[in-house]
Amino acid sequence: MREYLLVLFCTAAVTYLLTGPVRKFAIAAGAMPPVRARDVHREPTPRLGGIAMFGGLCAGILVASQLDNLSKVFSQGTDIRALLSGAGIMWLLGVLDDKWGVDALVKLGGQMIAAGVMVWQGVTVITLPVPGVGAVAVSPTQGMVISVTMVVVMVNAVNFIDGLDGLAGGMVCIAAMAFFLYSYRLWYGYTITDAAPAVLFSVLLIGMCLGFLAHNLHPARIFMGDSGSMMLGLMLAVAAISITGRVDPDLITSETGSQTATVHALVPIYIPLLLPLTVIALPLADLLLAVVRRTWAGQSPFAADKRHLHHRLLQVGHSHSRAVLIMYFWAALIAFGTVAFSVTNTGRTVALTLAGLCLVGLVVLLTPRFRPRAPRAVQAFVPPRYRRRKPVRAAAPVSEGEAPAAAAASEPMAELSAKDKELLGGLGKGGSSAVGGRGHGSGRGH
Known about the structure:
Blueprint: H1 2-29, H2 49-65, H3 71-75, H4 79-99, H5 104-120, E1 127-130, E2 134-137, H6 140-160, H7 167-190, H8 196-216, H9 225-243, H10 249-256, H11 259-265, H12 267-270, H13 274-278, H14 281-296, H15 309-315, H16 320-340, H17 345-365, H18 404-413, H19 418-445
Helix pairs in contact: 1-2, 1-8, 2-4, 2-8, 2-9, 4-5, 4-9, 5-6, 6-9, 6-14, 7-8, 7-9, 7-16, 8-9, 10-11, 16-17
């Protein structure tokens, strides 16, 4: 676990440190398009944040290759090399789209090419575990189709939710945390070495998202753009593909001692792709709804609009930050709730506790009158909107014979010097005469 924490810290630190220079580069390169009608932000914001995230990914992989336990992942398979090649193609495609714009069909073709390169290097579904049947082998063509489809769906699902500050990065981070819990348990709990790449991919994803979110939370200083969102979606898909179809149920049966316990332990694996789909259930639901909505209206499925789930949260009256938090809690509730079905005893208690806390947070956020306020001890370190307002000081008592307006004006005037009072008096006389002159001129015009 310490090696994973080191990789996570290095990935997050490099991503965080690179984001500032990348922001300046994006501004100099003109990768800061004007605000569109469907955008939520009000001023042009630089993109190309995916460059910093790709740098963090490379740094994390370099650190992992030098560690004793994690270096085995590099020597026992080609998953790392396939990930770098596919992420590089997807990242380059996203950079071109952030700077000059790429047609939707060309972008789809590039996504399929990136997925095909990874399949060619061995990242593909080999078998599909079916309840009551066992592991069912699939042909190379079927495995390729399933793998490419999963990559394309994941990439576009993450890309579709990248509409609010910090939304895509936070939701992918939550999904990666849930996937890490599941894959780490398979590796260390049941000594299944085929789950090792998925554990490392999840840690890299968490580090990239945490490092970038420090610059991307509302109000965002930089956007990840397609160069970041498509790369995150691809890494989620690779983590899912690298573990799906490679877990032998007989290995877990030897550990649990019964077929019933094995079925319970492998719920997300027995139902193919269930876990990777549920950890991003909201993005997938948004993607499907958008395709149905646009096709029903006679538009292209890739036509942009302002009717995504996060847009609807804003339309019903939620603030930007509250809408993002609501999406966070929904994603965490579904992801950790799914993980809870695949663990037992203490693990299930922890997962259910996390899901319960997410449910409580979701209910609190949906309460209209609730306004979160930080404790007084940390108010100096949080944005002003989360600080407690100071009580209004009571007005000074009005003396007899003094008008209320004069008494109210005397309080601030008492703090001014004699020269300031004289200057304010002169400005008042000049302002009144000027107003009178303008009034007469307008009368003549009519």
